[in-house]
Design a protein that fits this description.
Four copies of one chain form a homotetramer. Chain A has about 350 residues and is of the alpha+beta class. Chain A has helices at about 40-50, 110-115, 130-145, 185-200, 230-240, 260, 330-355; strands spanning about 5, 10-15, 20-30, 65, 70, 75, 80-85, 150-160, 160-165, 210-215, 245-250, 265-270, 270-275, 285, 285-290, 295-300, 310, 320. Chain A is built from seven helices and 18 strands. In chain A, a hairpin with a 6-residue loop joins strand 2 and strand 3. The two termini of chain A are about 30 Å apart. Strand 11 (about 245-250) of chain C pairs antiparallel with strand 11 (about 245-250) of chain D, so a sheet runs across the interface.
Chain lengths: ~350, ~350, ~350, ~350
């Protein structure tokens, strides 16, 4: 079962609460022989780090990962890679007022009901801090994908109603990291940033969409019938905090087209079978077809707001609750590397599975 | 790994190709003591059956399930329930022309590439016929849910651009089965039917949206952090043929609202903690909160159309391909019980998992 | 969880009771491209079949396997292989007297207590008839192993106190199938047979030891730390009905030697690193080292005897019980192919796992 | 797959090498509401600790466990329990000579061949130091078992040929911890100790048998057909370093008895159905029957000896190798809590599984 484990061959298990001693995880099933580029892994963590710009939370967390095992002379040994990230800048006092109150649309109520106990400090296990461990797993997965010339690039394509209308094929994705909102179109990016600044001033929060493109996937990844590649990707994305929807290829817009319009006709391009269009999003019958894989992930606004909201306490008495401390008005810029990490975990796992497909 | 198994405790494994001797499966982990209502199971299969109306494929398949084990005196014994559904009405000749040609947007190409071999008759394993086995698993899951007063009801809410705008709370879902399109609003249903008739005449296909509502789920189902309840539901839905997107609660529309607008405020209603609104879709922090769970599933148009399309053959030579035989112009009416079945499998599995949550 | 599934990549799931309609299973994860030699599979089933000689049960079961899926033009497609074996010669009346009585040392009592219900006919799910499905899985596994030049050969090395003292290295294992007891030494075989005849006359039963040798295993199979190759083999063997013990290499006799005596010294033989002795049984640190793997499996006498035994009924009243119908006085000759099958499942699964060990 | 994870519901994943920064693990699936008695957990670690007596290795390791998550106010929260044990007293120089040489019967050769790389310092991942993490998992499992009045007690019953002939029913197991060899019979214990002292003086090593008794197991644990309770126990024990064999109940000696002699007759004792004898070892049909569960585990002598042995280096050149540093002449006294821990993991996992057995 192991609900804190993701993957079947390349398996990431995470642990840790926001205000405990440390968070961390174990990667089991990483093949031996991989050079572990620690600078790259740490850099991926920086991309998720709080306080990275004025539109994110101002919490200061170092998020320094310490690898404890599975590596010898900088090379993976095939044994589990244990790692921890210490919790240093926790201000648990900011959460004392939540001890007996449930924040609307947060996990406070359901955690308490499910387990009969909850660590209310910083959201405990429900805190998005947990995703730092996913970044570590995803970064190692990316190092493997590098060797296969597979690249994963996510970006913010919508914040509230501010939308980047252009498809990814018309964007210069290498510009994504140049803006603090991680939108590759400078003009839209600036609009998004201004909007988030305004939202923050009002003590409110806003959601949006992260789009992701995977290039270079070989043909054949994905397992019929339940572990279709997009089903794995969908689960991966839906497991990220605040995600409300997932679509790939033409996605929900598929319903506006007829089969004759949406089918991706096969062509022979320089002795390689390709599709003329790519409404399928690089996956047909649950299996990668060699075209670009692309998908969208919808994030709701963060539940914790700085405005006063009605709620109830653990005894069912009416009360109010108001966010304290340092929270994100919009998680999207920091969620970009998380989306990439989860995608990387899925692709590596399926790459390894594919090794058993044929005799 | 077992990519043809769904679930962790209540596990459905399916086998079978469209034109083989039989399809079927094994349900492992069904608790003992359940009265197996065979009439109900068979009736669920009828809802998915081809040829049930003039807007579905005209193939005649009996889809009669035979239970082979795991039941004694009509009661489940706790042992695996093996079952088969024979393939009787196969016309493999209808598929001879596909032996060496890849249908656009179908699984022909990817299956061939992944495995180096494929059963081209009727789509082989990629055929939606496989979902009949899911219906059997789902029907047994529903029998368990009945005992917990949990009900699952799906319906067609959109076909092409014809959309049922009303939310489920304003619909009489008990009317769903009254129309052959399985849309509970008579007027919209008729429009959808007319539209599908037109699509069929043109030898084309069309997709749409199935919405699903789960009522009566106890608080506490779903497992942080990777096996969030909606992540399990999303994977379940995305594993169904032709599905391109999944959203739950406010879904993709969440991005149009601020946190202050979208948060579900807690209230005390007759000594029960409830939420005033339900944008969360009954799931918070990945765990059911006792409110209705609702979600949408987007289906693309069926890939096989009766029009001639450009394609290539296995040697990469340009050719054309045209659907023969008996195909669905729109899978949605038959997919309604499949969506329900997959949802039932997820809920039962999580109900059983929940038994281990606390000491 | 799936307690009726064995294996991680090459997965066998079985279903079926002794007196139901059929038993069978699904093999998920069989690589595509394997020629499925049906004659070989059926022949393996004959080796386990009841009534094969006068020292086994005289029940007549055809044990004819029907493959339902996963194969196209006799080649595996990479999709699940569903199969059934019909139950034809069941005489349920022979078991009416067991409806409310617990046979000593049988599964009657524990099944009833665990599940609150049990199919008492022929032992239901606890019947060794279930192992016929394992033979099918094992036979397909053997077909894969053939391609790797890996062979598995089990034989009866002890019945009661009649023991084959020679190690396997001094035996001609190709003679195993020549005797109905499946002991490769003719003289000992005959003693065993006479002894079983005598045991049967007394309405009693007897156990013994099956030894098994696996030749040709490549270096590197087995996964630290929990899935050591011998741990997988041990679990596989202990899951067979009536097995009470497992040892590999020097096994329990290891305790009689000092490290200096038992260590297998490495030597270089024609540019290949080998061990001079093989007390390790071909596995070091849980991983195959290329030497022969060998192990012993201890079987207790069959629980069902033809003598009257004291027992209690379901209400706890003292009573007696006596076997009726057709039972084995000694399961060992029929268990030889079961031991081989389970070993084959383990080795194939680990062969496929090994494909992910290195980058 | 996750070969470093043990268990299905209560899952222990371990990481770490002997000479890395730390070892540790994650326990996922521990129910919420358990008071985590840290003194007990630490005490269990002391029982495994090196240097605890003059007959064990003289290495000094503190083996202090730090719990990093999953606990709030000393109570488990239902979230993963991450923990580490730092490696402090490593003397890697003692292992420089092993960089290119394979110790006979150790994991050096197979690890190198399987992964193409190995951490030779202190045996790396193959070091029994890994079992300290199992002790942590097992100790937490024992805390759960305490609540069910289930107790597990292992003891050394044989060292070389010095054997404790009495069955456990005639021993006072509470005396086990009184002797440094962990044998409850004082006289035999002293003989064992003297023998180990002699073995050590000769730079040699010796193995033996650990017996284990589980009392208080409820009826019904264990899952047909592959996850029989004794199959789970067997795998657990065989996954411990140096184990060569496992038997339960009458075990290998079953072969010396007829069915009429070995069957455990049922009796009614004060309105409770019991067995008169217990050759079954508390498990029938793979399911616990409420009687004591007992089993034996055979350990070979430690591979690393202080005598010079012939071997080869990584290039296949003949050489010699001799243990340096601080090694155990006999692992049995320190392995007693490991056997108990693995047994506890199995029983807790099956207790939780049993919650899903019936409707």
């Amino acid at each position: 079962m192991a609900a804190n484990t993701f993957g079947n061959i390349f398996c990431l298990t995470t642990f840790g609460e926001s205000h405990g001693e440390a968070i961390g995880g174990i990667i089991d099933g990483c093949p031996s022989g991989l050079k572990l580029d620690m600078a790259f892994i740490q850099n991926e963590l920086q991309r998720r780090k709080p306080g990275q710009s004025h539109i994110t939370t101002q919490r200061k967390e170092d998020d320094e990962v310490k690898i404890l095992s599975g590596v010898f002379n900088e090379i993976t040994t095939g044994h589990p890679i244990g790692f921890i990230i210490e919790n240093n800048n926790q201000k648990s006092k900011d959460y004392e007022h939540l001890k007996e109150v449930y924040r609307p649309s947060h996990a406070d109520f359901t955690y308490q009901q499910k387990f009969g106990i909850r660590d209310y400090r910083g959201g405990g296990r429900s805190s998005a801090r947990e995703t730092a461990s996913r970044i570590v797993g995803g970064a190692i997965a990316k190092l493997i994908l590098n060797q296969y010339q597979i690249s994963i690039q996510a970006y913010v394509s919508q914040v509230g109603t501010i939308k980047l209308e252009k498809p990814y094929t018309e964007l210069n994705l290498s510009k994504t990291e140049e803006s603090i909102i991680r939108c590759p179109d400078e003009e839209i990016a600036n609009k998004m940033i201004s909007y988030i600044e305004e939202i923050r001033k009002n003590g409110d929060t806003i959601g949006g969409i992260i789009s992701c493109v995977i290039k270079g996937t070989p043909i054949g990844l994905g397992e019929p019938v339940f572990d279709k590649l997009h089903a794995d990707l969908g689960k991966a994305m839906l497991s990220i905090n605040a995600v409300k929807g997932f679509e790939y290829g033409a996605g929900f817009s598929s319903i506006n087209y007829k089969g004759s319009e949406l089918n991706d006709v096969f062509i022979n391009e320089e002795n390689k079978i390709k599709t003329k269009t790519n409404f399928s999003g690089g996956i047909q019958g649950g299996i990668s077809n060699g075209e670009d894989i692309y998908f969208n992930v919808a994030f709701k606004p963060v539940a914790t707001i700085m405005q006063e909201q009605l709620s109830v306490d653990m005894n069912g008495n009416a009360t109010t609750v108001q966010g304290k401390g340092r929270h994100d008005p919009c998680v999207l810029p920091r969620a970009v590397p998380i989306v990439e990490s989860m995608a990387a975990l899925v692709i590596v796992d399926n790459l390894l599975k594919q090794r058993s497909a044929t005799l």
